[in-house]
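## tool: complex_structure
## caller: assistant
## args:
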Amino acid sequence: MSPKPMPTATDGILKVRDLSVSYGKVEALHHVNIDVTVGQIVTVIGPNGAGKTTMLASIIGLLPHQTGEIMFFGETPVKIEVERMVALGMSLVPENRELFGEMSVEDNLLLGAFMRHRLGYRDERETMTHIYRIFPRLKERQKQKAATLSGGERQMLAVGRALMAKPRLLLLDEPSLGLAPLIVREIFHIIADLKKSGVSMLLVEQNACAALQVADYAYVLETGEVAMEGSAAELADDPRVIESYLGLGGDVCL
Amino acid sequence: MKRRYLILVGFLVLIALGPLILPEFYVTLLNYIGLYAIVALGLVLLTGVGGLTSFGQAAFVGLGAYSTAYLTTASELPVWMAPFGASPWLALLVGLALTAMVALLLGALTLRLSGHYLPLGTIAWGISIYFLFGNLEFLGGHTGITGIPSLSVLGLEVRYGREFYYLIWAMLLVAVWLTQNLLDSREGRAIRALKGGTLMAEAMGVDTARSKTVIFLIAALYACLSGWLYAHLQRFVNPTPFGLHIGIEYLFMAVLGGAAHVWGALLGAGVITILKQWLQDLLPKIFGSSGNFEVIVFGVMMVLMLQRARDGLWPILAKLIPDSAGDRERSSVPHADPLPKKPLLQASEQLLEAKDVVKEFGGLVASNNMSFSVRSGEVLALIGPNGAGKSTMFNCISGVDPATSGKIFFRGEPVEKLNSREIARLGMSRTFQHVRLLPTMSVLENVAIGAHLRGSRGVLSALLHLERAEEQRLKAEAARQIERVGLKEHMFDQAGSLPLGKQRILEIARALAADPVLLLLDEPAAGLRYLEKQALADLLRRLRAEGMGILLVEHDVDFVMGLADRVVVMEFGEKIAEGLPEQVRQDPAVLEAYLGGVE
Amino acid sequence: MDMQIALLLGQDGITNGAIYALLALALVLVFAVTRVIFIPQGEFVTLGALTLANLQAGKTPGTIWLLLGAGAAIAVIDCTISLRTGTIRRIPRILLWSVAYPCGTALLLFLVNPAELPMLAQVVLSLMLIMPLGPMIYRLAFQPVAEASVLVLLIVSVAVHLTLVGLGLLFFGAEGSRTLAFSDATFKFGSILMSGQTVLVLASSALLIAALFWFFERTLYGKALRATAINRTGARLMGISTVMAGRLSFLLAAMIGALSGILIAPIATIYYDTGFLIGLKGFVGAIVGGLASYPVAAAGALLVGLLEAYSSFWASAFKEVLVFTLIIPVLMWRSLTTHHVEQDE
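## result:
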């Protein structure tokens, strides 16, 4: 692994060009273009079934069949493989967390640093101390099995585990899913803090209101296509977005 | 279409001429191909179509062979058994009955097992039965039984290979015909749904356990028949051809030929038998010692086959023939008298009532004290954020995943203890959030599964195709529902080739084909475009006007608000609001739940 | 049956049961990590026993041809893939393991006279010949279909089993072999006389189980294997490649199989196809553990050993029938206790 060059503020971290994904003959994504620049939070909002999760899964290489180009830090792998993307510094916090339920919180975190360990870094203990500082609740539960955690704690563990890899780009799939409003707030606070510490993020959310508040730039994905894009502030004021995503008929955005 | 028939007729003529023109050696080879193909055919039904893998078929072949060998040669049969020893044909009946009993017993013990336990079970009893043959005194131990008499058919003695040839191939072709008939029927659709569609099929009222038993039984009986023929052809039996390795070879034949295709059984049996013959000559010469070295080649061939062409050789061969079965069907949209319908509902009859329904998953409460009701001629929408427990409620109500506690009444009857099949019978029909279709079957056939409970003809009439009138009416009903939901132009397409939105609509057609009084729709509008959503809303309004009750889970709030009569809002497994759409819209708890972002 | 015989049979049963237990552990491991029901596990037992027997007899074990052949096949396939995808930097590594290692081992066999080596060196040499075959078989047979259903993997597994049995016949011939005893000491515990061989089998099994436990509980790679078994997608997202996990688990399975073969070779005559039945008995144990629980699988395997020993006394002709029929009530019990949820694929 070559040393990571420090990107400058205007660098694109991730360029997705013309990404199409099909399940059998059914196309789930249609010529999608997405850009993430360094230190930014970019969000993708849209209704259920629009292809948001599919998009993240194919960017990191969990889904094989696709056309289009994914450029990550200037590299365009011929075949996108998860292991390769993780080695390059991409981490995904998946929608259903994908924790190792029968293993302890600590082991879950430790495995988050697996690829770093393979690449020769031996700083997993320090990183873990740092993670415990961000999520003190995980430290309290470190010996507990992941399966016994509450919904919010699981989400924290999933994020913490992904951060153990010290990712250069964090992909977050519906971090608010199934969480109580208070916990959602906490999670979004953490997302905002992570941004301050320099982590770039691609955030997929159904909770458009929260997502647009933390994000710098936003895309709206509908039936597999990018329907709108713009700065998060612009989209939050766009009547079509308000009508479709910000509230029941566009009444309130808390 | 014509070409297909020409090929079939040509094939039959060649089969008929075979013994007249071929030398003895090839006739013998063809005899064995026929015998093996009968067993492989059973495996096509069991494994290829039904998804139940068996390595133990050779044991059933052994049962057939040993029953007739014992009965027709034993000098001192017990009195009650003596009459069955008089004729090989009577012995065949005994063999079939014995096989059926053993198969039903093994089936009862092992068919319930999930995925991989079943094949492991077949390995176990395959070995056990093989060792039994070798260790039972009265079956002659490892030397076996000799002196088995020849057969006679209608007074003609069948003694030589050439005569046997016609008997074997006639039986094989009859078995092929029966199997094809079965697959192309109401029972056949249920069988084809076993592979990957059990949950859906049960929700449509199919008794999948019964379907599994049926194919297990048929496969065992085919194997038994093959064993009977084998015993009388060879005139002696010993345990060797009924061991596990031969059972594995049978499975290879089916997989190599194309496990999902009836003719694949013949192809696979042919290729393996000929190859085996050839390799058994060739390999010992190469290696300079004798032994069953052909298994090395078979093993490697099988691995490559499963890596490169998992569907076997038949589909590759079938591609060479241009017109496919789908085209033949395409020409005719089925028409027939409509099926009887359930009596019309009274206006505003209470259909569904859920009371304090709780569902826990290992301590996690997914649904807590949920109560609501649905009346006829009403659309009730269940909304709430992702993970709020809506689909869990659906599964409780439809019996797919029963509630932990609480009461559910459907048309006044308590249904919380019933399984999804019984509930379907009462007139509730549903769609699934994650579409559950049989992707390689046509849209028409998928919808016809929905009408399963509206037919009644069983396996026997399906085998003989005596149920064509009913089948036509089922298909016609399916076609009507397909037109009704607007998928007419896709009627003969493969279901898996439709876009996701249309697959959801297909699920609605399938649910409607069951003639339900209450329709449960799980996110029907997801993935639809604007116009399609409008068409769907129109359809649901029409159904409501006909008196149907509709329970709807949906994310698209606009869609729900424009359609539902009442709305129930869920969050964290609990009901947080209920009422008219306008009321719910203003409810502060709802706003908090839906929009609870950062402050 | 008097006490003496009962104890003798019990000792037999536990010795065999310990071997079955090792195999059961390997089967659970391979299944948990790769979803492969590893029918050829027993063939590694055969390979272990007969390779060692050949070395002791001063013959060149056929295993080396298998190693060279599998290596060559992998070299051709993987180098082609590397050239096609433009990842040429992988080629030296591929060649190291698939060509250089087998050739080096062949050279070693050629240079030394294995029959004259001390027994421990013979054992190490046998392991050197057999262990790489595990990952190689994974690479050739299973990796290309790694995402297929359990059933497809099972059929591949059965096909690999057939191939290996055929090759076993080719390499070792139809006659059985025994290896020299590791020890001719006997131990007396009260009234029970135990052969040194039995003690060795039990001690080695215990040691191996302890080592596996340490590996899975204490090392990062062991944890990575467990993680793959628990949640494949989650593991991949951590950069734990399915391929790596697969090869590692097959390496362990090959090691456990070969060691089992080496352990029983002095006390039982092993034929080219003996391994299959031994492996299947390990299977019965593994299934008792639901192919998921290591301790239950090991206990089940011990039970199989005891059952086999005692049934050989009462009904020796039906020994195998009894052992394999036992699996059916076990399967039933499994099907009643595990909540069955359909996995649509």
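## assistant note: Chain B touches chain A through 33 residues (CB under 8 Å). The two ends of chain B are 68 Å apart (CA to CA). Handing back to user.
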